[in-house]
Amino acid sequence: MGKIRLLPDDVASQVAAGEVVERPSSLVKELVENSLDAGAARIWVDFTSGGSRFVSVRDDGCGMDRDDALLCLERHATSKIRSAADLSRVRSMGFRGEALPSIASVSRFRLVTREASSEAGTEVIVAGGRVENVQEIGAPAGTQIEVRDLFYNLPARRKFLRGEETEAAHIVHGLHGIVLANPSVAFECRRDGVIVAALPRAESLAVRIRDLFGGGHLAKLLEIDAFEGDGLRLAGFVARPGHGRRDRLQQFVILNGRPVHCPAIQQALREAYLGVLERGEHPVCVLHIEMDLEFVDCNVHPSKREVRLRRPETLQRVIFDSARAALVRPRERLARTPQPARAEPVFVPEPPQGVIPLPEDTSLQRTNGISAPPERFRFVGMVGDGYLVLEGDEGLVLLDIRAASERILFESLMRQIAEGNAPSQRLLIPAVVDIPAREHAWVVDHLEDLRIAGFFIEPFGGTTLKIESLPASAGEKEPERLLHEVAAMLRAAGRLPHGRDVREAVARSVSRLAATEKIPDDEARAGQLVGELLRCELPYASPSGRPTMIQFSFAELDRKFGRAN
């Protein structure tokens, strides 16, 4: 007898379940996506014990008749595709025909559904993949699916589930991506009987973000200018300078209506925020992307979580340009405060922290010895170890002199490098420096880029280098310390390509070491510093991502002192 045998249907279903149902959040995702494909205008999600004991997803969609209610539990049964060619054109959320039979094979499963034109609905009870009962039942139009005791018949799988808090967090986070992808659909989510989200239908993405995360979160975002061309459309929101996170949990990317994970998009965002956020931080965002189906393959992952792009460089360029344009926009357009839906709580965006608007006109006006834009600043004083205190029309501003100096020096040096004329100061006596072998390799590998940035360095045998000139902006800084700083930054940045990236690293090192912490000795010099900073491309953060300015609105001060009405 041969060694190869066909798997029984129940075993094959459990194997498929291992691909589709990784944890409770996976089945919630699959069920909600089916509701969306059914044209639901409202979806209710309810779960207990982190989803391992009970999950219910109910919708007001088109529903099913008795035959379809039974057929949807068969493997590879789907209403979404008819031929192999359809796989490259699919726009629906669920389309594999694996989700429902896979879920039903590893749980106690109940389906209740009714078409709007039918007088009675259909109830189907399944346990471990076996249909136990089918009957007519009174039910509202739409579909409700209940899943109890997930993996009850696979104890080895069940023991790998995490604690209730962790599993519940995965469910809620997964729902966040779905509700942001579908602002026109109302959602309600209950956890252990308590409502954790009640979202009415929203007329815009901004309203949905506000309703989901609150006005304070919306105020930390910048709306990008919508883009259309090259076979794609892009819209959404990206983080204001200074509002990053140590994880990517608040990066929501919606591609053709589906929340996805895409390293190419993450890379474009990371590059757009170089010098705007601190090292290790990631910008929050909500991006809606539409691409021609011929450029996207969503059939590469069992749960459709990851996608493959045919032309990733085109999308990366558009995302980079759009995010960068929002960051350097001459006049920041605050997200319009959306009006709340009826009977819903009002969320009013709080004033942005860490930013003040750039002037419409780069010509600055003098007021009390300080250069100021159309929102005029009044010089109040200097405090602490290097902070200017300014008053504007909207509130109080604290300016970090060192961070501002770093930003000004960095952008000045980058302009000079781009123009090919970065000034260099020749040392009276060349400095001979011995550095570690790894740093020596980095420096020697990028000698031409260092020269363009103002360094003239020659190998001097072994791991020794001879420094003949330094960037003029480095001032009187010690050559050895400056070279160590540059080499360390190059090494920390990983294997950089030759060109702009290396020169940016050099400019960042020079500006960090050469920046001043000295408090200006009069108002005129303070005004000059503010004016130079506001003329920078990205005045809100130092090259390392630290904020240069923090604004406290008068409304916020009134609240803190209990004077708000």
* Alpha carbon gyration radius: 29 Å
The end-to-end span amounts to: 86 Å
- Outline, from the CA principal axes? elongated
**Share of residues in strands:** 15-25%
Structural class: alpha+beta
Structural topology:
Layout: H1 9-20, H2 24-37, E1 42-48, E2 54-59, H3 66-71, H4 99-105, E3 108-114, E4 121-127, E5 130-137, E6 142-148, H5 155-158, H6 164-181, E7 186-191, E8 194-199, H7 205-213, H8 215-218, E9 221-223, E10 227-229, E11 232-239, E12 244-245, E13 251-255, E14 258-259, H9 263-272, E15 282-283, E16 285-291, E17 296-297, E18 308-309, H10 312-328, E19 365-367, E20 370-372, E21 378-383, E22 387-391, E23 395-400, H11 401-419, E24 424-434, H12 437-445, H13 447-452, E25 456-459, E26 464-471, H14 479-492, H15 500-514, H16 523-534, E27 549-553, H17 554-560
Parallel strand pairs: 1-7, 13-16
Antiparallel strand pairs: 1-2, 2-6, 3-4, 3-6, 4-5, 7-8, 9-11, 10-11, 11-16, 12-15, 13-14, 17-18, 19-20, 21-22, 22-23, 23-27, 24-26, 25-26
Helix pairs in contact: 1-4, 2-6, 9-10, 11-15, 11-16, 12-14, 14-15
